[in-house]
Amino acid sequence: MNRxxxxxYAIRLLMNRPGFSVLVMVVLAMATALSLFMxxxxxxxxYKALPFPDGxxxxxxxxxxxxxxxxxxxxxxxxxxxxxxxxxxLEEFVLSQDSYSILSGRDSARTYxxxxxxxxxxxxxxxxxxxxxxxxxxxxxxxxxxxxxISHDVWxxxxxxxxxVIDQMVRINGESTRVIGVMPPGFRFHYxxxxxxxxRLDLDRVTRGxxxxxxxxxxxxxxxxxxxxQTAGRHVMSRLSEAYPETNERMSVYITTIPxxxxxxxxVFVVSAWVTAILxxxxxxxxxxxxxxxxxxxxxxxxxxxxxxGAPRSRLIMQMMWESTIIIxxxxxxxxxxxxxxLDAVNLTATRFIDGPxxxxxxFGLDAFxxxxxxxxxxxxxxxxxxxxxxxxxxxxxxxxxxxxxxxxISRKEGRLSHWLVVAECLLSVTIxxxxxxxxxxxxxxxxxxxxxxxxxxYTARVNLPENRYPGNADWFRFAEDLRSTLGAKGGVRSVAxxxxxxxxxxxxxxxxxxxxxxxxxxxxxxxxxxxxxxGSMAILGMELLHGRFFDSRDRAAGLDVxxxxxxxxxxxxxGVTALGxxxxxxxxxxxxxxxxxxxxxxxxxVVRQTIHGQPFGSVDEASILYVPFAQQPTATMYVAYSYxxxxxxxxxxxxxxxxxxxxxxxxxxxxxxxxxxxRNVAAMIFLSQLFMLFGLVAVVLVGSxxxxxxSNTITQRTQEIxxxxxxxxxxxxxxxxxxxxxxxxxxxxxxxxxxLGGTIGWQLANTLKVDNGVLITIIVAMPLLxxxxxxxxTWVPTRRVLQMxxxxxxxxx
Length: 814
Known about the structure:
- The chain is of the alpha+beta class.
- It is 51% helix and 16% strand.
- About 2% of the residues have low confidence.
């Protein structure tokens, strides 16, 4: 009965001040929603266990070079075999090679991501095909039958869900292949694979530097730790680096979970997002606790009278706890619903973040992790924002309150708690604002980055040539020329460019050396992005020539090896002199597609305005970009960019018709407008930056509402004190100065450490993104100033309101 009465009493108190109650609930809902969303998003993309039995024990083993995680299989199989034999804690060791493969044999040819795997791969995931079977040991040995296991998506969309798909014959990269199995829905292990083929790798025939690479997947043995296993693996690679310096000098290994490996160099964002999300929840809890404490102190006289009349303190605490429980329950519950809505929306838009299908473990929603985080948040907020203020208000000295009219005790004891809560709000909010500021500025600059090309009116696509059909350089070059001439003759197509990487897309990044420079060892060699170009392509894409010439018909395979470099490359290596006539050569030992044009000196014949290959983060204005003629260094994977006035479906039909005329078994994939391709390049970063911007806005609202509520309540309770000061001759300026001095002390105690913490996070982000130091310093200075303005305004407004009262009215104020 008492509990029901206390509940009704809390509801009545909330209804007495509906504006206050709604404000606190809305702010709490916003903070909870953003924090839950961010924590769930980061957990899903980076930490979520794979959806297999004991999926958290599955690890990936791939290359690590110069501090960069090399995704996609960059380890020599002999190195992987050394790791398998020498590193304890790894079980069910299976090799894999990933590449694009062409599936044909029905109405059309389509390109899919394929994995060539050992026989134990499906056993590693404890997953069996829903139709047919997995590979046998005989099928993964040399001379075995050509077989394929397909994904559920391929079965439904390419084979129409036919029940007789097992034992159907299709062509994979032109090879007659038998379908032997269909995997369950959603299975695309280990990143986005749709086809699985037997890996037939004879280690006795593999040599170092042969260009044969792979990755490995394994399970951690019981009791093994991923960090310890990785340390042991790097010791093995260090030993191999000393034994085989020509091929292994700069190579190491990383051994981690598959979700973490997909983050690449983005771990600084993961850590920053985690810290910021947690700080926002703590800030919200402190803010609500501060407001509830201020409200409880407003009722200090009422509480003192009830205590004097014999009311148990525990009963008063429970009554105040009911009020905070309702506010937190409604606000946090609304935040949970908002977070669920946001996570569902991400499921529909996740493909915007990557070029291709989303990663198979990306399933956003209210899972066990979200519910556990929500539970911890509610419990923490009840303790910090509910129990602490209730206990503090109910344990007040009621004799002093009744004697002094609630003035002296509030200004000293409760005032100290409120003071430190405001300090905590300042510290957390400035930390969040600085981190958010760095990401928002980077997002703004990235979205407006100049890639050195004009994407207007251009469509792009990728083409991958299978090795068995197109085995060598001459075949790749011939196909590229045939496709350009055939597509260029189609109606509506005005121009065609073909490059291994167009500006805005990732390029091969080898090391190189400049003629005339001395390098102590290979670790001192510069690294640059390199792209192969058909003549005419650079002008078609709007790349600006600064000096020299573009490639033309003179630049054939048997001609002089030539190169065009970016503006930054020329300034870096030949400051004050012309780059034309200078020479470079690639010295990387892992050339793409088995290309063997190693060690040839390339003469610089042109310099173009700076371009960006890949994402526009980091020191893009200083990056070395190198271009070589396609005839001299062709590649099996190429980008086709063509000017077409129609819409995307028309552009796709036109390209498909051209490819059918050249080779009906070679399809295009990833057809997008050039603008959309560039937008996808930065979509994930812009999305993350927008979230941080919301964090910053919510932090401003939290700190503004919280501090205003606390300061306004404090000043209102000191109305009689202000009246006495004015009656004794104190000027308005003196009163303002006293309150501003108190606000200044809170500011210094909160903003100084907050600036140091936020500056540390901001520096880490800026260092990764290569944000200009001047921009970083501006953000570190501007955010504390913004918070200072908020606090001063929150102090000035209620002080001004009290000062507008007549001194006599202030003395009579209760």
